[in-house]
Amino acid sequence: MIFYFSGCGNSRHVAETLATGLNDQLVFIPEAERENRYEYTLAEEERLGFVFPIYSWAPPKLVLDFIGKMNLNAKPSYVYFVCTCGDNCGQTEKVFRQSLEPKGWELAACCSLQMPETYIGMPGFKLDTKENAQRKIANADAKIETLLPRLLDKGHFSDMIVGGMAWLKSKLINPGFNHFATDDSKYRSTEQCIHCGRCVEVCPLKNITLEEGRPLWHGHCTICMACYHHCPVNAIQYGKSTEGKGQYYFGIES
Ligand SMILES: Cc1cc2nc3c(=O)[nH]c(=O)nc-3n(C[C@H](O)[C@H](O)[C@H](O)COP(=O)(O)O)c2cc1C
Ligand code: SF4
Ligand code: SF4
After folding, report:
1. Which of 68, 179, 207, 212 has the most CB atoms at less than 10 Å from its CB?
2. Residue 61: inside a domain, yes or no?
3. Does 232 lie in the same domain as 116?
4. H-helix or E-strand containing 18?
5. What local confidence, expressed as pLDDT, does residue 181 receive?
6. Which of 118, 200, 217, 218 has most ligand 3 atoms within 8 Å of its beta carbon, as the pocket-test mutant?
7. Is the same domain home to 70 and 108?
8. DSSP E strand boundaries for 55-175
9. Low-confidence residues in the chain, pLDDT < 50
10. Statement to judge: residues 188 and 73 lie in one domain
11. Any ligand 2 atom below 6 A from CB of 231
12. For the segment 35-56, what is each residue's pLDDT rounded down to a tens digit?
């Protein structure tokens, strides 16, 4: 069974590819959360996988919170995660292992895949060029091909892009990011809005409604940026940080 989260589709692509290759079932974490589905039955020897994007050098808080609430019929025999990142992951492996400790589960394998950047919510952060984005996707797809047999064999490995100043990023910056930088009150729609409702459809947390044809954000946001990136007329902005930075989601025509 593979539990996954994705805002802009990179991690969904990875989760779907793994599910096909491993013949595993997929569970979308926000959907399970909405339906209070925390009890799961694993078959004997079934793999337990997690796929998610890196948010501020750690797994998204909503993934860790979900793991905390999960109940399984037995201790899983093989646990792994595959994460996608624009650049690097800091101490994600350590943070993830710590989230399993209270449950008595052990992490057997983990791997990070560089995929196109999606975060542009602060000054200085920008998207990849089209060429870079395509190169990252091609490399990630090639790496998934090598990953599948290792997961099928239930191999034990750690194949993570950690990057520099890992402790600082994951232990100091990450809690600050979760506390101060996930505020959706900075989102706004501009006069370009054509009232299509795409932002409402793509929000994984169902955090947006249309009020008089324009999006309204409701304060339980994970800053996945899916609403910004999917707007067909680029009418969503996050403060001033996103202006003129372009859009990306997995599968975008460009
Ligand atoms: C809020 C946020 C924080 C991010 N933080 C990091 C990070 O710390 N390191 C990194 O390499 N990429 C970071 N990224 C980039 C994403 O991890 C990467 O683009 C990922 O593939 C997006 O996956 P998705 O399309 O499934 O949402 C961040 C993206 C977002 C939206
Ligand atoms: S996706 Fe863009 S155009 Fe469509 S309703 Fe949302 S803000 Fe308006
Ligand atoms: S409101 Fe936008 S950024 Fe926030 S969770 Fe929904 S799609 Fe993601």
Report:
1. 207
2. yes
3. no
4. helix 10-22
5. 92
6. 217
7. yes
8. 71-72, 78-85, 107-114, 157-159
9. none
10. no
11. yes
12. 999 999 999 999 999 999 999 9
